[in-house]
Amino acid sequence: MGSLNIKKHARLKRKKRIRKNLVGSTQRPRLSVFRSAKHIYAQIIDDTTGHTIVAASTVEKDVKEHFAAESSKGKVVAATYVGKLIAERAAEKGIQKVVFDRNGFLFHGRVKAVSDGARESGLNF
């Protein structure tokens, strides 16, 4: 088994540092964002029960169809759309306030775009 990539190892260290102070509850669940090279995933998690309440990602059929016509828009625009989508789904479940978990990723680019999209659609954090 090889050693971890240096960047991945640094992200996991940041994640551990962040998560020790960040807990999602029933009143204020955790909005977790994961970023891969091609896609972005967001989910709202209740840490007391360990269940995912709402999820959205660029892998979903709806999102792929939305961006199929114009693939030149880029990943940041898709991340903003995912943020709006997760905020709408959270509003349907009655969730207005969340705790933002950037999962060790730096707060810029696509991670920031997800949070901006969620804030635009009415999610508070």
Helix-strand blueprint:
Layout: H1 6-19, E1 30-35, E2 40-46, E3 51-57, H2 61-68, H3 75-92, E4 99-101, H4 110-120
Parallel strand pairs: 1-4
Antiparallel strand pairs: 1-2, 2-3
Helix pairs in contact: 3-4
Structure characterization notes:
With 125 residues, this protein is α+β, with helices and mostly antiparallel strands. It has a single domain (6-120), classed as Nucleotidyltransferase, domain 5, CATH 3.30.420.100. The chain has helices at residues 6-19, 61-68, 75-92, 110-120; strands spanning 30-35, 40-46, 51-57, 99-101. It has a 4-stranded mixed β-sheet with strand order 3-2-1-4. The longest helix has 18 residues, at 75-92. The model has no long low-confidence stretch (mean pLDDT 92).
Notable features of this structure?
four-stranded mixed sheet, 4 helices, single chain, 18% strand, alpha+beta, Nucleotidyltransferase, domain 5, 125 residues
Shape field: globular
Strand content: 15-25%
Q: Which architecture name does CATH use?
A: 2-Layer Sandwich
For this structure, what is the CATH class?
A: Alpha Beta
Structural class: alpha+beta
Give the domain tally: 1
Tell me the total number of β-strands. 4
CATH topology value: Nucleotidyltransferase, domain 5
Number of helices: 4
Question: Which regions are unreliable across 5 or more consecutive residues at pLDDT < 50?
Answer: none
Radius of gyration: 15 Å
Report the order of strands and helices. HEEEHHEH
Q: Please state how the strands of the largest beta sheet are arranged side by side.
A: 3-2-1-4
Distance between the ends:
39 Å
Helix content: 40-55%
